[in-house]
Design goal:
320 residues; Rossmann fold; Helicase, Ruva Protein, domain 3; Zinc Finger, Delta Prime, domain 3; 3 domains; six-stranded parallel sheet; 14 helices; elongated
Amino acid sequence: MQVHTVEEFLSVYKKNVYNLLQLSGDDFEVSEVIFAIKKEFEEGRIEVFFKGDAEDALHNLSAKTLFGDKLMIIYEVDTFPKSQYNKVKKITKNPERLKPNTIILTYSNKKIMPGVQNSLSCSFETVYDSGIPSWIKRFIRGKGYSITEEAINLLHFSFGTNRKELKKQIELIVGRLKNTNREITIEDVKEIGYCRDDTIFKITNSMIEGKYKTALQYLMEFSDNKSLFYFINRDLRYLLIVKANLDAGESIKKLSSKERLNLNNYFLYNKYKVAAEKVSYKKMEQQYEDIIDAEYKIKNGWNEFSVNFNLISQLHVGGK
């Protein structure tokens, strides 16, 4: 049987129909399923195998269980040597013979995951930044609650794609709600606080706020500069557009639409608008000229870390 979400998977699993479970796709969703199923077994009844454990995995799959059922988890089974992977497929072809054990097989390549009769399978779609609001809503609905759009926006802004932290935060919020309150509001989210921790966000957020020295400090902690300039360029360009609209007396509400900048409303009003009101349009134009110069250097083979460092340093000197 093929399902599509964590909630569907666990709901079907709890009916005790399937003992062969196949998972692939989004790492977080796969880990959520495995975490939930592991709670059904005593620690001593769980066996876990990885890429280099093919022989041990095969031996344990074939062995008879003497004392009750156990859970076997074989990660990325499709990375086993071909002959051993084929043996796993042969053994698991008839899940009935594996009872009373429960077997979880994860696949690194969802296209390789075979269709096995009487098994439960799911290939989770990767959740990108644009899909996080829907994920938040679905996760909260699964707990029996609803949430306002403002609260979704703030959670998304605060934690980005970090669903591990989002889950932790949502559970904290739900735990503090009164029994009669089934809707999460922006005030509930603010009470807990927020702390988006990815370094790119820290750098660009500091730059938007004009805290260039702080941005430089975060830059020195950052190990992967390949995508950083894209976000610096994008965020300061967005700031320039917001400033142009404010100076022209235009509403910036339209900028949040997908057809425009597709900006999170919380971010638009509490970050970009606040920052744009503090700096002149002329100064922003000068900053953007520095960005265009930096982009030219990167396209012509300059070291990206050095370009980013020099750019932020220039803005810091001119930003006082």
